[in-house]
Amino acid sequence: MNLLRRKFIKTAAFVGATVSAVGTGILIPQRALGAYTKAAFDAKDVSGALTAAMGTDQHTASDAIKLKAPDIAENGAVVPITVSSTMGNIDAISIIASANDSPMTSTYMLTSACEPFVSTRIKMAKTSDVLAVVKADGKLYSAAKEVKVTIGGCGG
Amino acid sequence: MASIKIRAKAKDGVTTVKTLMSHPMETGLRKDSKTGKKIPAHHITEVTAEHNGNTVMTANWGGAISKNPYLSFKFKGAASGDKIKITWVDNMGKGDSAEAAIK
């Protein structure tokens, strides 16, 4: 009986060690891959979020960016946003909901193979401007559109 | 695991990828209506798209992406039959990936 118990503990310990080793092995390369900018999502204002994500908060409005968003969002929890552009050399696109508790919703790092196009659904706390910020040739360009929200989507 | 749905279509050299992931995407601001306690943040932080093993796009997400996220993007240089792989990681260290062939 005692021997069996010993064997069980040994096996359990071995399995545990293997699982945790494999676990870290998978996690580390993924973490290192994209350099997740947590500060951008913790920032409470638009300029702080932009500085953390893109390195600067200086951006100029541009007609070359097309931001598709509804005029009125009945449900702030699901607001469809599409950003596209005719610019070249685009490195990144950020979508910002300016009145959210943390304005940064998402940043997309595009490789040279990508077309300047992303589409997703975001949550908005209340009526505010949605800002699409595009980083091209190291400079920031933006387009804004006001979305009226009748029911907020960030709880509280 | 089937937490990711992928549709990818190549047309005139441009591949359009549409994905749906199933995830609660908790912001950390919402409160439990019964206990009044805050529901801890639980959302996807990174989404990576790979075409035949090469990364084409990386997305950083906060809690302000809607529940069961939808993501669409376009890229060049893929042919029909190529593999597209989508991987996500969330703030609790969990993750999933799925692969699909481009139509």
Chain-wise SSE layout:
The complex is a heterodimer of chains A (156) and B (103).
Chain A: H1 2-34, H2 38-42, H3 46-54, E1 59-61, E2 65-68, E3 72-73, E4 79-85, E5 90-97, E6 104-110, E7 114-122, E8 128-136, E9 139-149
Parallel strand pairs in A: 1-9, 3-9
Antiparallel strand pairs in A: 2-4, 4-7, 5-6, 5-8, 8-9
Chain B: E1 4-11, E2 14-21, E3 44-51, E4 54-61, E5 70-76, E6 83-90, E7 95-101
Antiparallel strand pairs in B: 1-2, 2-5, 3-4, 3-6, 6-7
Strand percentage of chain B, roughly?
Answer: over 45%
Task: State the end-to-end distance of chain B.
Answer: 21 Å
**Helix share bin of chain A:** 25-40%
Give the mean pLDDT of chain B.
Answer: 87
Helix content of chain B: under 10%
What is the name of the CATH architecture of chain B?
Sandwich
- Largest sheet of chain A, if any? 6 strands, mixed
Shape descriptor of chain B: elongated
Instruction: Assign the structural class of chain B, choosing from mainly alpha, mainly beta, alpha/beta, alpha+beta, or little secondary structure.
Output: mainly beta
Keywords:
heterodimer; A: 156 residues; alpha+beta; Immunoglobulin-like; six-stranded mixed β-sheet; three-stranded antiparallel β-sheet; 3 helices; 9 strands; 30% helix; B: 103 residues; mainly beta; four-stranded antiparallel β-sheet; elongated
Structural write-up:
The complex is a heterodimer of chains A (156) and B (103). By secondary structure, chain A is an alpha+beta fold. Chain A has a single domain, classed as Immunoglobulin-like. In chain A, the strands form 2 sheets. In chain A, strands 1, 3, 5, 6, 8 and 9 form a 6-stranded mixed sheet that branches. A 3-stranded antiparallel sheet of chain A has the order 2-4-7, with no helix packed on it. The relative contact order of chain A is 0.19. Chain B has 103 residues and is mostly beta strands. Helices cover 0% and strands 52% of the residues of chain B. In chain B, the strands form 2 sheets. Chain B has a 4-stranded antiparallel sheet, with no helix packed on it. Chain B has a 3-stranded antiparallel sheet with strand order 1-2-5, with no helix packed on it. In chain B, a hairpin with a 2-residue loop joins β3 and β4. Chain B is elongated. Chain B starts with a strand and ends with a strand. The model of chain B has no long low-confidence stretch (mean pLDDT 87). At the A-B interface, α1, β4, β6 and β7 of A face β3, β4 and β5 of B. β6 of chain A pairs antiparallel with β4 of chain B, so a sheet runs across the interface.
